[in-house]
Amino acid sequence: MFYYLFLPFTLFATYINQGGYVLIVLFIVALYMWILLTERFFFYKYLLKDEINESFISYQNMVTADNWTNQKIKKMFLAEITLSKNKNINQIKGLVALCPLLGLLGTVTGMIEVFDVMAFTGTGNPRAMASGVSKATLPTMTGLVISISGLFAITFLERYINTKTTRKIKVFDND
């Protein structure tokens, strides 16, 4: 009964043991990336519309008789919406780009282990080299999987941002 409760932790510990400590760093980066992506999805789904409406109400309260001033005020509110809309997007893109590089770091550390085993035992013992080869390939695969999933998510997120906000910001053009 209790075995099944701890099975995911056991599998995770086995995976880390087979792939090396770079996988822990990759796991932390992936967790942080997905927290940021989840926050952005939540913001666009539930909070952006209210922020646009509040900005429009504030804009309407500041409207004057001078058309030039009104255009500058409108641009100011649109810039504020754009800033809040694009918050953390570049950070997410940076984390997506970082994951394959961390996977390559794991590859290098795994290959160093392979070369250490080869120097100690020679090239005639493939079973002794298997651990290092595992530590060389698992981080690369993990980094690429995390990066590809993050790339799909950020592409979907940017498309969602552009389609939703262009429709919602048209409120400013109808004043």
Topology:
Layout: H1 2-19, H2 22-62, H3 67-85, H4 89-121, H5 126-173
Briefly, what is this?
The chain has 5 helices and no strands. By secondary structure, the protein is an all-alpha fold. The chain has one domain.
Q: What share of residues is helical? A: over 70%
What is the structural class? Answer: mainly alpha
Major β-sheet profile: none
Q: What is the overall number of helices? A: 5
In terms of DSSP E residues, the strand content is under 5%
Counted beta strands: 0
From the N-terminal CA to the C-terminal CA, the straight-line distance is 64 Å
Q: Report the principal-axis shape.
A: elongated
Q: How many separate domains make up the residues? A: 1
Q: Report the average pLDDT across residues.
A: 85
Which regions are unreliable across 5 or more consecutive residues at pLDDT < 50? none
**Rounded Rg:** 25 Å
Helix and strand sequence = HHHHH
